[in-house]
Structure formats: C-alpha cells, structure tokens
Automatic annotation (TrEMBL):
Highest taxon above the source species: Eukaryota
Signal peptide from the UniProt entry: 1-25
Residues in Pectinesterase inhibitor domain copies: 30-186
Keyword presence, Plastid: no
Official protein name in the record: Pectinesterase inhibitor domain-containing protein
Taxonomic classification: Eukaryota, Viridiplantae, Streptophyta, Embryophyta, Tracheophyta
Organism: Sesamum latifolium
Length: 243
C-alpha cells in the first residue's frame, strides 16, 4: 500500500475543481444570454438575428444550440452558393459572356475545389459537438477560419479581372462569407463568456491548475476541502485501485 502525499492529493482535487469550474462557467453563460445577446456581438447582427430567431426563438438559448444552428445556416448558404460556380452554372455563363480570357474558367474550377473544402471544413466544425469543452471551441474556430479562407482564396483568384467580374464574384460569395464570420463570432462569444466567468484566464483551459484561475465557486470548493485534504490519510493500493 502506498500513501499519497499532500501535494498529490491537492493536485487531484484541483484538477477536479477546475473541471467543475469550467462546466459551471459554461452553464452560467447559457443561463443568461439570448439570441439577441449573441447576435449583437457578431459582424452582421441583423443577418444573425433574422436568420436564427425563426429557428430557435428570441429567448434565452443554450450555446450549443445557437452555434449548431448558426453553422448549419452557414453550411446551407455555402452549399447554395457553390451551385452558381458549377460547370455550366449561371455564374460561369455570365462570366464567359463578359470575357474571352480562358483563365476565368480556370479560376472557376479552382473555386469549385475551394467550395468543396469549405463545406468539409464547416462540417468538421460541426463534428466538434460539445462546445462546453474549451479545446473544442478552439477547434471550431480553426475549421471555420479555414472555410472563410477558402472562400477568400476563391475571390482572390479573380483579382486580375474587370471590376464587373470581381463584383459579380463578390456578390455570389457575400452571404456565405457573412454566415461563416457570424458563426466564428458566436463561438468566440461563447468562449469569451466562459473565459470571463473563469476570470478571463485562458491558462485555466490549458492545464494550469492555479486556483486563482478558477471560478469563485471553484475556489470556495477548494478552500472548503483544503483543511480536510491537509489532514487526510489517503492510502492507495499499488495497483492504483484505491482499495
């Protein structure tokens, strides 16, 4: 039988309290924010509010639900926009009618590949299904940022063409880009809210078990347990079973 040291016991306790604190921070945010609150911090608040309210209402909403719905809207809009870039699609016909430059068709082909990547990236962001986990929120921002970059690269491929063609491309990408950016803003706000509740110290999310980066509730739990831990005689079997 091997006794755990006080520091080992404290480390285990702190890790448990940090996990409780992160969950509590997320829950506190989810209990006080409405669709309007989330949409007010997005880059395109009217688009955000008018598209989300018909789906989830205007009241208090869970962060998971508002993110999922926002990303689903972005996915649908990108999918819709991709149709215009299809072979012999409406956009291709318009561009061919405005220029004889064969590189325009090459740029459209590149855009078709980039649209496919953007759709994959948004779908991947939706696969990170639990936004209560800080690392998932980081992953979601990464994949949505990649989708936004895909569409930006598509648009950049037409920089050497006429203003008329560039405006045509920009107009076809406008809604897709705005929905993606709003989704990024929403997941950033979810993270900001949770981080703020955790006193804004992101080290809490990266394995730093400093009790000062916990929520007030978490610190009180640790303080309450501290004296008991200090006086405990915890014994663990060599196999780690605790028996």
């Amino acid at each position: 039988m091997a006794s755990l040291s006080y520091h080992e016991i404290l480390t285990i306790l702190i890790a448990s309290v940090v996990a409780v604190s992160v969950a509590a921070a997320y829950q506190e945010c989810s209990n006080q924010k409405s669709v309007k609150d989330y949409c007010s911090v997005t880059s395109f608040p009217d688009l955000c509010y008018n598209s989300l309210v018909p789906k989830i209402g205007s009241g208090i909403t869970q962060p998971q639900e508002i993110y999922n719905q926002s990303a689903e809207l972005a996915l649908a809009e990108v999918s819709k926009a991709s149709l215009g870039f299809a072979v012999d699609g409406t956009l291709q016909q318009l561009i061919v009618g405005k220029t004889s430059n064969r590189s325009a068709l090459q740029a459209l082909e590149i855009c078709r590949v980039l649209f496919s990547l953007a759709l994959d990236n948004i779908n991947t962001s939706l696969s990170w299904s639990d936004v209560t986990i800080p690392e998932n929120r980081d992953g979601i921002r990464t994949w949505l940022g990649a989708a936004d970059a895909d569409l930006e690269t598509c648009q950049d491929g037409f920089n050497d063409f006429s203003y008329e063609i560039r405006d045509l491309i920009a107009e076809n990408l406008k809604n897709s880009t705005e929905y993606i950016i709003n989704s990024i803003d929403i997941i950033t706000e979810i993270d900001r809210c949770a981080s703020s509740t955790m006193e804004g110290n992101k080290n809490c999310y990266k394995g730093d078990h400093n009790p000062y980066c916990m929520s007030i509730k978490g610190r009180r739990l640790l303080q309450a347990a501290g004296p008991n831990v200090a006086n405990s005689d915890v014994v663990m079997a060599k196999g780690g079973s605790g028996n």
